[in-house]
Amino acid sequence: MSIKIIKKPNSEIKSENNSQIREKVSDILLQIQKNGDEALLEFCRKFDNYQSENLRISSKQIQDAYKHIDSEYIKALETAAYRIKKFALYQKEAIKPLEIELSAGVTVGHRIIPVSSSGSYVPGGRYPLPSSALMSIIPAKVAGVERVIACSPPDKSIGTIHPATLVAMDMAGADEIYCMGGAHAIGALAFGTKSIAPVDIVVGPGNQWVTEAKRQVSGSVGIDFIAGPSEVLIIADKTANPAFIAADLLAQSEHDPNARGILISLDENLIQEVLEYLKTYLNDLPTQSVAKRSWENNGTIYFADNIIEAVELSNKIAPEHLELQVSDVNLLIPKLYNYGSLFIGPWSAEVFGDYVSGTNHILPTMKAARYTGGVWVGTFLKVASYQQISPEGAEELAPIASELAELEGLFAHKLASDLRK
Fold this sequence. Notes:
By secondary structure, the chain is an alpha/beta fold. The protein has three domains: 19-223, 3-Layer(aba) Sandwich (Rossmann fold); 229-370, Nitrogenase molybdenum iron protein domain (Rossmann fold, 3-Layer(aba) Sandwich); 390-418, no CATH class. Helices cover 46% and strands 17% of the residues. The strands form three sheets. Strands 1-11-10-9-12-13 form a six-stranded mixed β-sheet, sandwiched between helices. The chain has a five-stranded parallel β-sheet with strand order 6-5-4-7-8, with helices on both faces. Strand 2 (98-103) and strand 3 (106-114) form a beta hairpin. The mean pLDDT is 96.
């Protein structure tokens, strides 16, 4: 491969799973298991300065939140919610139950069963993230989950969940909402306390403490996946719009200092044009401090001689978001298989997927796209098989099962088969 690296990252992204965080998270989770609500409230006070004794958000608080959000923002959230729900409904329709008579007297099939309860973790931070509430709650409700819990840490300026996040949680259909964040919130969702019943699966992005907590509770409860810093990779040729590319790279970079913006260009002139636009946009960007640091530390630009090299590199990187800004996208798509979500053509900006196109933005990072997709309605559905066998069917199957059971030294299995011959 003759790929040239035009811009290297200035630093390696360190694994967030270091031993110190592991130990601290382990202790937090143990305290939640042992002391329940007492420990949960103590951690909420310690880490989030949350002073209320009641973590559950009341219906009055939810209704008041609507009064504190501009009507245009509410309309935007309603539109996004509608599109996310519509796509999730179409996805659910594609997941069909199955039943077939495999041979005489042997009927097999599967049922589609929603999990009973789910927990949606919605991050806090510098700004509210209501879009993450929509993305994690709506697919669960469409799947048929009876009890969907949502939680988010308090906004430091108001001491409780930001009104925009609360409105989004309510709009999405959350059944219970709690003001709590961090590893202790994940512990409460996974193990339960006296006031909060545990859930079957926890989904949603979070910081390094949330990520490590999800890693540690996995198995006791289902999780979507372990997520790291957000990523975008753009494959572009000479027909691409350099202004679009620069804006999309910065849109990714402004998430946080560890976010990764990656360009694989098939044209050297395009690279220079993109760099010029990056410089121009950064001058006036309100989030310049984060975006510039992220781009300088983690931004990467490759030059590829041909499209095959670009595709091979992209599949190796397995990005969270993959944009195609090339003249013949149909040539690339069948060859690309490692990505969280694909954005086809110059007008398919990654930002649309973040908010309103209808697809989900909770996606695999750190090469996890090699083995999983993002959160979707199927995340909350179990495909459970069954069989119904008649005496005629058992007569055919029993001798085979008996032979295999004897081969494996499982003689009660053999007996159970032989009795049905």
